[in-house]
Amino acid sequence: MKMNPPIYRSTGSNAEKKLFKVIENADFGDDSICFHSMNISEHEYKKWAEIDFIVISARGIMFLEVKGGRVAYEDGVWSFTDRYGVTHSKSEGPFEQVRSASLALAEYLKKNDINIFNKYVVGWGVVFPDIKWGTRSPEMPREIVCDKFLAKETSSFEKYLKKVYRYYEEKNSTKKERISSDEIKNLKNILRPNFDHGQSLSDISNEFYKKIVKFTDEQYVYLDQIEDNDRIICSGGAGTGKSFLAIQTALREAKKNKSVLVTSSHEIFVKYLKSEFHEKDLLNITVLPFNECCTNSFTDKFDLVVVDEAQDIMNVDDIDCLDGLIKGGLEKGRWRFFLDENAQAGIIGKFDEYAFDIMKDYSSTIQKLRQNCRNTSQIVLETEDTTGAYIGKTRIEGKGPKVQYRKIKNDSEEAIEIGKHIESLVTSDVPLNEIAILSPVRYEKSNIRNIESRWKKHIENISVDNICTKHQKSILFSNIRDFKGLERKYILIIDTDLLPKDNNLFKSFLYVGMTRAQINLWIAMRVKFEKIKNDLILARYQNEKKK
Questions:
Q1: Which of 109, 156, 188, 339 would be 310's cystine partner, CB 3.0–4.6 Å?
Q2: Torsion from C-alpha of 273, 274, 277, 283, nearest 10 degrees
């Protein structure tokens, strides 16, 4: 059964964790879905309520309350003893708890023009996964109780769930509709519209910043599909959520007790990837820079290898190295490559079309991501117009700030204008740690050294030690190469006269730099930069006109 969320999120209940795995393996039709830990903000007598599990299938909707540990009931008072021997007493028991929460959620759905009690078979049950249940009472129907024997494994739990459905079907005097596939999708979109959501964007100057970046349905469909494929190439432009997918695919495999290797070429980016996993996840997941993978003598080969920014290792030597790390090798093993086919050659590693053809021959699935989840439409359109790359349609609604080009004559003017722009951001209440300054060169050769001291003291050069910690009073400086895969809300691109003169390299560096900005992009436009930029746009326009 499809779980939402797909990975167990700790609620502090070991009983829920055990049942999550049991339900996940249950079969109640292709369209069935189970929501875990559904919060309810509108309740008759509670400020906040929660339903542990909601199962929706063609047969109807079932709400489940889970109570682990020892359970006692005396003179109308319930007592629950957890695994640490701590006892809690309540007048409200699990039967009334799940019933009232179910009614509250039904009222919420009614506001969305769905009366579930009139239309579908609806009921609730209580699961005691740690005890044997032998009590009979009109307040506690035996038919809706699941004890440790029924909750032990998937097959017995399926029998329990069928029994609960049958119990409520028989209690209904009129025949109810089966829930269609489209209706299940609609219920899902109402109950939990987004499988997950991205970082919220604060409203600094207008309503645009109050919106939430929502990951696309395309990504979630892809996550659901990958389990059926052993070898996948996932291609998308900057900001289409490749790293998010790489992390989620690794987690899905790891929770099945499979060994997973997550790797990428650049050490700083790998440090960021590793920070996205909890410590307990790293029991089954190894996260290493690619160069260490090839020199490390692993005891065993991996069940799955996940490569992010895979375009950087797309050459014969590197894929030969990977071949020796996967059980079954590249041809028969399990792997996921996440890459961007847009112009990035020459920044890190090397991209070989011949090697890419080999990987495509091995791959059982090639998935394209076309929805941009990182950048405003202004940044997307400006990047595509300047570099000719296709990033994807932005999912951030609203009109963001224009991309700013500041014409610069010389180094001293550039240093002054950098300071002015930082000051304008700070005056607009932008936190320093939401700002990053990018350059085609390293700090030692950058004009950042010449900015006013009151801003220079806040500049922090990027490293593996600070990439995961946003110091409140620090602005991150990085060369463009080291910032691949990363992002900030506010980006300044400087030293543009030092961009490579080669047109392809120029576009590669600019593409990476521009797409790091989520909201606001400011570019110091030196004379050489302006000429190359305009020539590239004109050449592409002329080529398109000839077609």
A1: 339
A2: 140
Question: Nearest 5°: phi and psi at 433?
Answer: -75, 0
Topology classification of domain 377-546:
Rossmann fold (3.40.50)
Does position 218 have pLDDT exceeding 70, yes or no?
no
The pLDDT of residue 108:
86
Mean pLDDT lowest among 225-229, 399-403, 456-460: 225-229
Of the candidates 135, 151, 123, 137, the one whose C-alpha atom is nearest the C-alpha of residue 67 is: 151
Distance, in Å, from the CA atom of 19 to the CA atom of 157, rounded to the nearest integer, reads: 9
| Cis peptide, bond prior to residue 401, ω within 30 of zero | no
- Token pair recorded at residue 222: 């892809």
DSSP lists the bridge partners of residue 435 as: 490
**What is the full DSSP assignment across 483-526?**
GTT--EEEEEE--GGGS-SSHHHHHHHHHHHHTTEEEEEEEEE-
Over residues 377-403, the mean pLDDT reads 84
What is the dihedral sign for C-alpha 89, 91, 95, 100? negative
**pLDDT band, residue 430 (cuts 50/70/90):** confident
CATH T-level topology, domain 216-372? Rossmann fold (3.40.50)
